[in-house]
User: Fold this.
Amino acid sequence: MSVAVVHSRALSGMEASPVTVEAHLANGLPCFTIVGLPEAEVKEAKDRVRAALQNARYEFPARRITVNLAPADLPKESGRFDLPIALGILAASEQLPAPPLAGCEFAGELALTGELRPIRGALAMALSAARARRAFVLPEANAREAALVEEATVYPAQSLLDVCAHLTGRMPLARCFERPVVNGWHHPDMAEVKGQLHAKRALEIAAAGGHSLIMVGPPGTGKSMLAERLPGILPPMTRDEALAAAAVQSMGSAGFDIANWSRRPFRAPHHTASAVALVGGGSQPRPGEISMAQHGVLFLDELPEFGRQVLEVLREPLESGRISVARAARQAEFPAEFQLVAAMNPCPCGYLGHPNGRCRCTPDQVARYRRRISGPLLDRIDLQVEVPAVPLEDLTRGAAGEASEAIRTRVAAARARQLKRQGRPNTGLSTREVDRHCTPDAHGATMLKQAISQLGLSARGYHRVLKVARTIADLAGARTLSASHVAEAIQYRRFDRS
Assistant:
């Protein structure tokens, strides 16, 4: 036959859109043309495919070859189309039977020797292939990642020759059934942090309700230590959460390491990161640090040192849980269900309020430094905690603090109450759900009214106080919000920007 059709996928945001690779052979002067909005990497497939076919001892047709990647208005990038293009040419030149191609999807970059090299986005493509009820043939290096989709039929191959032997029936590929093994917890232990009971309590509340948190304190008081230990006290990931987090990481340049299956992501970008590095983007939009922290923790140390424009991009994801990256020619949407943890010094020199009295910053310098964090962003952070210098007696005390495992048990119990009551963590409650599940008693309501007046809380701040109070009550196993729950929640919104 002179025309062959092979199925593959193109990545567009988090979607793996179907692509039909059509190969046509015609008489005329020998040439090789690829159409269908290919990027430079796809255009270069001509030379890779030609060398791979020749080194695999197949005949490269000396005819007019046209490869169409449909739909034509969908941009095609990366070398994942090498394998389907090569198979299409072989089928069109009748060196390979065409019928077996219909039930499979193919993706893989070809080396000049015909070996298959790994690609990115294998997990997303495996999900889409499973929904389309087709088997998925891909490089062996990506097989374990794709096999995380239990309903997918994944066939790993080392080379073009292996794929051809499978399609002709000479040597069928073995289906990949390997499932990941959860190797337990490998996060630093909270017991290593001495003192800072107030900050530890705030971290436990943040973990239980999925709340965002900012810690303010001098250098060396344990802010980074506390943040690094937050993933270790978060509840275990569900399969859906683990699959969603793995799918996002699979889209990154480094791909997904199966050893990290079911581990909460912890992303800590440097303060020189750009806005695009956080939200994602590029000519072919890829997820940024916010999305890479899906169902995990995004830690921003030295928060005021980030650019103002960079910090402002956090506002929408904190509210909506999604990021839309719009470009002139295309638009992509990425998930952003992450937990923000930030840390900052109280003043430019960092030692305001420190017992050693080293701070010489003027009130105007302190106010200007703190105003680098905008009011709208700060209003979206649920817990605002001071982390003071640790007394010498706490540092020299031999007894360790409470272990992460004990805290995680309480957090998991509180999170289970939330899921049973409303089907989501408290941080995700809508306004109507807050009115339904977070109504305080009479004394608590009076206290909250006073706080609104004295602290100048916005409507958003009011609802966030109620969500935090609901989490405090869940940790205590209480059904109703008492004045003590509301009072503790109020004290976590006392950050002074003036």
